[in-house]
Amino acid sequence: MPIKLKKPAPIVSDMLTVDQAATVLGVSRRYLDKDRYEARANGTPPKVPFSVLGHRTIRYSRTDLLAFLEAKRIA
């Protein structure tokens, strides 16, 4: 008698990759890479907040991206 497996629930993550974050913001990946580089080089916070989850795993919070867009809104 075969075992019936349930379909796993889809996981909707609030954490986005660099490419996904660039798409949400409507900017290039290079813009986000440059923002992180300049922040580190100058010792200042980045314009767009991000998280480092591993040696090279960068993630952006969807909530932070929307807050960034709202802060840049004119009128």
TrEMBL record:
It holds the Pfam family HTH_17. Residues 15-72 form the Helix-turn-helix domain. It comes from the Bacteria. InterPro entries: HTH_17. This is Helix-turn-helix domain-containing protein. The lineage of its organism: Bacteria, Pseudomonadati, Pseudomonadota, Alphaproteobacteria, Rhodobacterales.
